[in-house]
Amino acid sequence: MPENPLAFALGLLVVGAPVALFAILGLASLLLSKPLSERTIARCVQSSIVVGLIASVSMLVVMLTWGDTQIPMPIGNWVDVETPVLHAHYHFVFKFEFDRLSIPFVILTYLLCGTVSAFANRYMHREHGFNRFFVLYSLFLVGMVTTSLAGTVETLFSGWELVGLSSALLVAFFHEWPAPATNGLHVWVIYRFSDAALLMASIVMHHMKFEGDFDRLVTGEWPFATAPLESNEALFVGLLLLIAAMGKSAMVPFSGWLPRAMEGPTPSSAVFYGALSVHLGAFLLLRFYPLLLLSATLRGIVISVGLATALFATFAGEVQTDIKSALSFASLAQVGLIFVEIGSGWEYAPYLALVHILGHACLRTLQFLRAPTLLHDYRVMEDAIGERLPRFTGAWLSHAPDSVKTWYYRLALERGYLDAFLNEWIVHPVLFLLKKCDSLERAWTRFLASPTPSSPPPSDTGATLEEML
Amino acid sequence: MNNPLSELHAPWLEASVLFSLIGAMWVGRLRDPFVASRHSLVFNTLTLITTIGAWIDYEFINPEGFPPHDAQDWWNPLTHLLGREILVIDPLSAPLLSLVALLYFLVSLTTLRTKIRRFSFAGTLMSEAIVLATFSCEEPWLIIGLLIAGTIPPYFELRFRGQNTGVYLKHMALFAALLVVGQMFVDLEGRNKQIHSLWAIGPLLIAVFIRSGIAPFHCWMSDLFERATFGTSLLVAMPLVGAYAAIRLVLPIAPDWILRTIGLISLITAVYAAGIALVQTDARRFFCYLFLSYSALVLVGLEAVTPIGLTGALCVWMAVSVSLGGFGLTLRALESRRGRLSLTNYQGLYNQTPALAVLFLITGLASVGFPGTFGFVGTEMLVDGAVEAFPYVGVAVVIASALNGIAVVHAYFRLFTGTQHKSPVSLGIVRRERFAVITLTALIFVGGLIPQYNVASRTRAASHILKKREDVAAPKPDLVGNSAPARQVH
Predict the structure, then answer these.
(1) Partners of A74 in the beta sheet?
(2) H or E stretch covering A245
(3) Complex confidence, ipTM
(4) Where does A67-151 have alpha helices with state H?
(5) The model's pTM
(6) Chain B positions in Cβ-Cβ contact with residue A77 (cut-off 8 Å)
(7) Mind telling me how many Å the CA of B188 is from chain A's nearest CA?
(8) From the CA of A189, how many Å to the nearest CA of chain B?
(9) Distance CA B121, CA B52 (A)
(10) Mean pLDDT for the stretch of residues B317-336
């Protein structure tokens, strides 16, 4: 139990509200033969969001009133085992932490998720997967809140994975068609490698400091904390964290998943990929900001990645023909700039980046939610000004020769051939090798099955249930 | 076993084996497969109850905080009959017995009408008796005999189904021969000798590799999955008998350096099998490689011989048995509805069987150690132990886990999405399957959200195992087993 019981109670509400929502919606889907009504689901979601938001704002007020800048909320040792004979001890701490970084982020999460849920109640009305959407939405909320408030690497990793899974399944939400499923898988693959990088970073930190607790990894309050690591250690861990952040925030060369993620329903695109999920990478870097300060090389790499992504997203975004893709690239450009800010190492860079994230997420959510009515909005504006809206073209491009324009257009339309590059040089060779191994195995099995000629493996069920019934 | 054993409050172990044996004989006499199915379920239930009884009883007489020790049945008629302890229970086997019985029970329970005529209930009960006896046994020669006996029922099933038995027979013959040869060398060198030569350890190790499906000895497993019924294949694979053989036969006599070398081979297999699972076009083969990857990961943890790694491996063992068992049952339920499942095209089954889709995802993700599920903490511990034992390459466990996660979601999308499967009849989940679904889901989440009990129990088992080989770890011996004085395991 922490020193301040009020803060602890509020903290429990902040964390518990989305967990309760997910438990209710998930269990109802699993146990009830008939899904909950739209109205019940909407009420559950609203109640959870309102409780969580009020509790998190109250927590901010409590912190400001008492002058606390860091309130840890240990839930306890999830696992704590010790074998004295073998001198082995393992504990798995589940801990949340309210500080200058987590409180704004969690309030932002509740605010945007609340807005989007209100929008989605109408947007998804009578949609076949209404219930499924909100189950995944609640899972996403649990993941976001857990990640935002994580006080240990393990807690952060848990939330990180939940965000990844819910995102991938939401991209494939309209699962009656192949394209959403393919794109959902694409998102999942990138997220999975990002998760692997984060897990490796967490293991390395464990082995360096024997703890996954942020308090032990960095000393002091965010963002002025210091990390008791050597520069090369910080570079190694930082690179792993950067890979995780790059995957989650769709940085170059992993940018391909972001436009694909627009395959999902608009509300999820708005809140997840346009506003919250895409900023998680930047959040991770902010959380481990003291590590970045230890290595100039690491900061240089972060800036390079951010700049490359901002430039790429600006180029690619200009030729997108649908509003959601255009907005996703606009988001990406801003996230790239946020990376640059973080990498700058400037004294107030963490605050600048945090404010940038908050502002950008709100603006982008608004734009995404207005996207379905874009034509209507344009018409209203054109009616108001009495003429067509002006069309903007890049100043330098208008002076460029046609061949350059065409080349630029192709490059931008193909999104810098990044997907093609990854497919051609990584995915296809690996899959080719694995298929080769598989075919060799089959040949070896056929050889072992001789001298009796090997009959083809049978279809196990002569008659399926479908046929029998 | 020279130390006197404590006694359980009832002959649970012997009763569980006996129920399965009597059940096998009883059900074997029945001609109507539907009646056989119902009767078999009764015997499966009795066996499950007795194994749970054994577990609870063992925990009662071995409370946490006290050094764990072996126990045998009350009255133990087998001991009186044969003059030596045959069936015993220890911290390792106590929950495993219940887990094995639960798997057999659920497989029998979820055998639908489409499968009933081709599924051997008598053979399954016989296999259950053999596996339960194996898991209750610590005597090397008895374990070897039971391991060899356990290979016979699947062979007969393949024969009765008119399938080619070549691959299975060759692997199992080699398995049996290596077990016998290895143990003979162990006996020749003297049972009390702590460090045995490579002549003794080598054959036993390769036998364990064959049974666990470690590359390059794994092809029999994919062949069995393709040719036998899914239920039988599942029950041959899921109890991880190979891992049990490793703990009982190899771990007590092999020095650290051999185990670590072997651990590396298992690590390679884990990544390799995860990769191969990605490119499978048949759901059964996909499942088989997913299983092989996890079977190899369990061996990685066992062979890391660190307390954390070993505990992680034992936790993953439990988690994999529950989650991959459930995953296999889901695939089997889908097969009952659609026949053999191809992963080359989208099947779009979500709308027809949403409950199975959810279970598929939950069990699949639980098997890859997703947060909040049974396997999460175990996988974390396994990774920690692997990195400790194999610095740098230990992170391959993370890669294997990532690849398995991709393979599971890929299969999910292929089977349940991408199109809409039209069916004139309902393909929804039936009551028996719903029961199995809820049982497994509850186990997965309870084990995931409240992991302390399971981890503490596996830590005790790991300590028990490591204590038994306390004086074994020694510098590299030569081929005839000459070695420097023994040292303590860290």
Answers:
(1) A95
(2) helix A231-248
(3) 0.90
(4) 102-123, 130-149
(5) 0.91
(6) 452
(7) 32
(8) 6
(9) 22
(10) 92
